[in-house]
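Lecture 7, part B: from sequences to assemblies.

Below are the input chains for today's worked example.
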Amino acid sequence: MNIAVVGTGYVGLVTGTCFAEMGNHVVCIDIDAHKVAQLKEGKVPIYEPELDMLFERNIKAGRLQFTTDLQAGIDAAEVVFLALPTPPGEDGSADLSYILGVAKQLGKIMRSYKVLVDKSTVPVGTAELVKAAVAEHATVPFAVVSNPEFLREGFAVSDFMKPDRVVIGCSDDKAAKIMESLYKPFVRQGNPIYFMDEKSAELTKYAANAFLATKITFMNEVANFCELVGADVDKVRIGIGSDSRIGKRFLFPGIGYGGSCFPKDVQALVKSGQDQNYDFQILQAVMAVNEDQKTILLPRIKNYFRGQLQGKKIAVWGLAFKPDTDDIREAPALYMIRALLAEGASICAYDPEAMLNVQAVLGEQITYAPDEYVALSGADALLICTEWGVFRNPNFVAMKDLMKDAVIFDGRNLYDLEEMSKQGFYYSSVGRQNIMRS
Ligand code: NAD
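Predicted structure of the full complex, as structure tokens:
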């Protein structure tokens, strides 16, 4: 099948590459000329495990192409995916201007039947708005489908290739058949394709992200309470996670959720509620708790240094909002770094993939280390913000030698308390007792 993908970011590039891998001919379109030039040179502009290899193979096979020209990109396509940004607008609602702008353009330039598939995360009712925007100028028949994407950054390729489920919101039989044949190769192990109306599909995505954000936030509150009563959140986590109704995943406490999806999607769902005079109380609380959680370690760090952070050197491990991605959108690390800088501390940071992105935002306000150990040189304390694999089993003796003081504030609970005590660190994590130096 000939496919076009409009918007070649995290979702669009993975979508395009994975459909090409299944033998389709895919043209990815983006307005960012620099990005398209990079892609044409064979360079993947984001970090996503497993993507490079598929990308290369499908370019070589002539199944994956890139352009900035919307008309040329969609002309041969029967299916056009929209993987465009839906950032929060000023009032917190999803900004639909990218999607509706492209929809309007498509209406003007389409020369044959197309299935227009919305992959972006959008509020209920967007499919209708897209239909209306396209219909304004369209001279050929078309269908609009809502097909929300559930991939996780860091696992995007494997999530796309083997999705837990595919959700297709569609009220047009022909389009539904086309979508089914497109997705069949991805669900050969029997995972379901759920067909539903467009509104339910749109809400499924928001409900999924809001639920996951709530689960994380609930556990963060349990962790905060553990500290007050002397319980250990790791034990509580294991204790509740083995209940199959609760499940083991998304129970790890830490310094809050971030990323390009959870914060904006929770906010957009709250706003959608307000538009219907519905107060999403639980999600309001989730947003407020998460806001506090991102800097929950700051008072502890200040307290440790007796309120005086001026001139202290803090090493930061991890900048991306989670491991295995270079995405720093709404990353808790940035909130902590800004708060520490405001207190007069200096920061030397290391992240395996996200440093260039942070450099583009923070510039020379902080220094960047070539590896995790160099970041520690002369540090008064280490702050861990992202649970990259490379930080999980470090050489504690080397760390102590490099640091001015053996002090770790761990926002991701990477280390065993007994081990920290044995190694002689001052160690403060989330929802567990502080380890004092012996
Ligand atoms: P992104 O910012 O990485 O990519 C969007 C791309 O669209 C950019 O390359 C941008 O240049 C391009 N673009 C903007 N306007 C354009 C236009 N008029 N024509 C062509 N291209 C244009 O965004 P993303 O992370 O891929 O997210 C896209 C959508 O998917 C969002 O709605 C997001 O909520 C949703 N989503 C994201 C993820 C994720 O993990 N990133 C997962 C599921 C769903």
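Note for the exam: Residues 6-12, 29-32, 35, 83-86, 98, 101-102, 120-121, 149, 151, 153, 260-261 surround nicotinamide-adenine-dinucleotide (CB under 6 Å). Keep this in mind when comparing with the next example.
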